[in-house]
Sequence to fold (168 residues):
Amino acid sequence: MRATGIALLSLGLAVSALPAAAEGGPAPAPNGIRLPADYKDWRLISPSYRTDKNHVRAILGNDTAIQAARAGKTLPWPDGTVLAKLVWKEAPHERFPAALEPGEFVHVEIMVRDNKRYAATGGWGYARWLGKDLKPYGKDAGFAQECHACHTLVQDTDHEFTRPVSLP
Ligand code: HEC
Fold:
């Protein structure tokens, strides 16, 4: 009993003593936003393709986003929504070059809905990590103004370009 207690206590200490770096994942963006550890497991909101950059993209959503998308309640997206955009250079399929596939990884970026915290940028917190080593983008927290400025083009769809893909 006593041994179990000690074991549990030391486990507790070990967990609480974990430094921030041991949370894993890349360094936070200059505005303090972290890349959610489970983003790779999120579900699809929509694919997209940029003809000016020849990039293949996948836009994924966390559970809150997926629930809102399925319920058709995305104008506005609810608090707690996180959308992630994963970007790759296009690459022809080795065996069937007419098919374009995701090639080299370019970046991942996210938008976090928190109306209070990010009131200055339309209720969305922005962050981006570049390349395979996921280097945080932006010199200081002001980088989000650049994101917000372009996303203001679609203010009428809650600053989101992507609409959930239509499914049968
Ligand atoms: C010059 C315009 C422009 C700028 C600047 C920009 N975006 Fe976007 N963003 C877009 C467009 C267009 C899309 C639509 C999907 C695509 O790119 O294929 C998009 C999509 C997104 C998405 C997926 C959800 C959605 O709205 O469609 C996220 C997340 C995102 N951008 C984050 C960011 C972040 C973070 C920054 C700043 C570091 C940023 N964006 C800067 C134009 C821009």
Residues 3-22 have pLDDT under 50 and may be disordered. The chain has one domain: 26-157.
